Amino acid sequence: MVATFVPFCSNFTLKLGRRNRPLILAALCKNQRGANLKCCGVARPQILPSALGEDDGLRVFVLSDLHTDYEENMNWIHSLSSVKYRDDVLLVAGDVAETISNFVSTMASLKDRFERVFFVPGNHDLWCRREGDIYLDSLEKMSKLLDACRALGIDTNPTILNGLGIVPLFSWYHESFDREVDIQDIRIPSLEMVCKDFHACKWPGDLSNEGTSLALFFDAMNEKNHTMIEKIQRTCSQIVTFSHFVPRLELCPEKRMLFYPRLPKIIGSDYLEDRVRSIHGSKETTSACHVFGHTHFCWDLVIDGIRYVQAPLAYPRERKRRMNGGEHWLPFCIYSKGRFAHKLTPCYWSDYYAANPRSPHNTQLAPWVAKFYKRK
């Protein structure tokens, strides 16, 4: 059978023996107060909503990795209140759906519930494997998705709302983003075997998942918004940027903690982080925030003055095991009453790294990872 690495992206699969079952992350970490947190298999406190009280100011919610090709996820979208968010803004950080029909249905439903909806594409949005020969390549599909967004009234460009700058950022990953020591002495499947992007996406010309061509191409798409971004920098004291992919390696657990230790090679972009830093500049933590998605890890951590947040809906199986805290706290309110909201909590891995230094040179496998490869 095929077991899926979770909570990582659905790109990652591994063939196991017939009797093996899908394995899930069972990490024992410590939060800042020293309390033990077991990431699955035990009862855990629900993630609490933040800043959901009624008020007359601008409220901005965030959500990523909707994956509404799953019926349960589409039902969750349709179950959102049609009244509660009617004056609010939603930032969708990619991976809405694999098929364009599900994409349009999802975004139309969200637009019916929120006053404004912003979107950037993720890798699943650009898959062509279930679209037949409708699209020549993933860039043509992206063009159709952006056309659909314009028709629905979905924003994909930077905007100023009530003094808050909102900047969607296009991005893609590159393997050289990963500069930490690799795990040795275990047989780890290749990227091409595990990552479905290599087969489900189609790229024209010299673009490919090898090298930095895709990361550079998508980053260059942001240049067309240069004038508006400069205006946001001049006039807005608070700015939120958002992307699908990961801008910093510190926003992912270390390789020894991961069932697929090569994961960091297919999650992020240095060019994206440079872009984020160029926009936020030297703004303080209370006025600079970047939202991302892709890895399905809840995250809320300040690094070098910028707050990084991930709030994924993720896959139904992940929510059932409450690997991301369940679904009742989503979408997460990142901005309310003229300021960024309180910390998203609990976020198991970012809380762990807030209290423990990162040690990428330590390649000793975490017990749950060692057990996984021993069973394999």
TrEMBL record:
InterPro entries: Calcineurin-like_PHP, Metallo-depent_PP-like, Pantetheine_PDE
Gene3D superfamilies per the UniProt record, alphabetical: 3.60.21.10
Calcineurin-like phosphoesterase domain span: 58-183
Signal peptide, first to last residue: none
Protein's name according to its UniProt entry: Calcineurin-like phosphoesterase domain-containing protein
